[in-house]
Design goal:
about 375 residues; globular; alpha/beta; 2 domains
């Protein structure tokens, strides 16, 4: 069934797995929760994250589990809606088998339940969401950890690359916490280069009409686009450019990847100068850990090549999140959340799929 999950629907498969988990729950297990969009606009990234967690759990169990207990994965669909995500988190908090939760793509959703996480001392990992406030959330005893991009640094890269191609880049950003924080950080980078601050061109989720947007880009004589959009809106944006022969360079955040962006736009992208930031790829990647993960993914989910692995960055970062958690638990020999948190903050080094980590969660780190 696993190999057909994207066809059946990950939300359906996950609900079935959760039913069986609750019905046949055994004492000698511990569980890792996944709260992600498994059915709506970010379902591709949600499934990638879930599979990264599953592959890590499989590897941990092959080595005898954690503290002698089998690790199981419980995934809940938040549908990209904060209210549903908050219900999911409450259920995870009430489940005494849950030792940690791995989150999904949207920063705004994570921010909506930060208080619940902190007050209940729930270990939480963000393997995708990039808004700085996900981890820089004002709590001294912080239970939120990130194995992902931080937009404070991504903004500098986007501006740097845009200015290699142009002198007057437009900022096109999603109307969300993620988009607003990205806009703020991009403006800081522009100002550091002596360029004026922008209000930005703000796009709502589900937007399909782009005439006014591109009229503004033309009238303001923007000569490149710094794009901070998720897959659905980015797809429509690029489609409009292709249909209307509007060709200026795009330098994009990685929010557009993870679903069907490249497959849907392959004809248009041939004529568009697109560069995007991404933390991980299998292309020309000779790292043993990366190759092993790709091979295990293909074996587990019946894929024939690396090209069939969707949103590999989400897979890799979710995998490393769980393995870093496991290392911390083994080190402190405890499942107490405060003890595990302290162990994570004192983690030394780990050779992950993404990279070699050195003190990744030190309190001075801004991951």
């Amino acid at each position: 069934m696993k190999e057909y999950e994207n066809i059946i629907g990950s939300h359906i498969v996950s609900r079935t797995e959760e039913y069986l988990y609750k019905k046949y729950n055994k004492e000698n297990i511990i569980a890792i929760g996944v709260d992600a969009d498994l059915s709506m606009g970010a379902k591709g990234s949600g499934l990638a994250i879930k599979r990264g967690v599953e592959l890590a759990a499989d590897d941990i169990n092959k080595e005898g589990g954690l503290l002698g207990k089998k690790v199981v994965v419980v995934a809940k669909d938040n549908q990209g809606i904060s209210t549903q995500a908050n219900e999911n988190i409450k259920e995870f908090i009430d489940d005494k088998n849950i030792i940690a939760v791995i989150g999904g793509k949207h920063s705004a959703i994570i921010s909506s339940y930060i208080k619940e996480i902190q007050e209940n001392k729930l270990i939480y990992f963000s393997p995708w969401a990039a808004a700085p406030t996900v981890t820089e959330n004002g709590y001294e005893e912080n239970y939120v950890f990130r194995v992902s991009l931080n937009d404070r640094y991504a903004a500098k890269f986007l501006v740097q690359e845009a200015l290699k191609k142009s002198s007057n880049p437009a900022i096109v950003a999603e109307n969300s916490l993620w988009g607003k924080e990205a806009l703020e950080n991009i403006n800081l980078s522009l100002e550091s280069k002596g360029l004026p601050k922008q209000e930005g061109i703000i796009i709502n989720r589900g937007e399909e009409h782009f005439d006014k947007i591109f009229n503004k880009i033309s009238s303001e004589k923007y000569d490149s686009i710094i794009m901070v959009l998720n897959s659905q809106e980015a797809t429509k944006f690029v489609e409009y450019m292709g249909v209307n022969n509007f060709h200026i360079p795009i330098i994009s955040h990685w929010g557009m990847v993870g679903d069907l962006f490249f497959k849907t736009n392959k004809n248009y992208l041939k004529d568009i100068d697109l560069k995007f930031i991404q933390t991980f790829s299998l292309v020309n990647n000779s790292k043993k850990e990366a190759k092993d993960l790709a091979n295990e993914y293909m074996k587990t989910y019946s894929k024939l090549s690396n090209e069939e692995i969707n949103a590999i960055t989400g897979v890799a970062q979710a995998y490393d999140s769980v393995m870093l958690l496991a290392q911390a638990i083994k080190k402190c020999k405890s499942l107490d959340s405060k003890t595990v948190k302290d162990s994570l903050e004192n983690s030394d080094s780990y050779e992950g799929v993404l990279k070699g980590y050195k003190k990744p969660f030190d309190k001075t780190s801004s991951l």
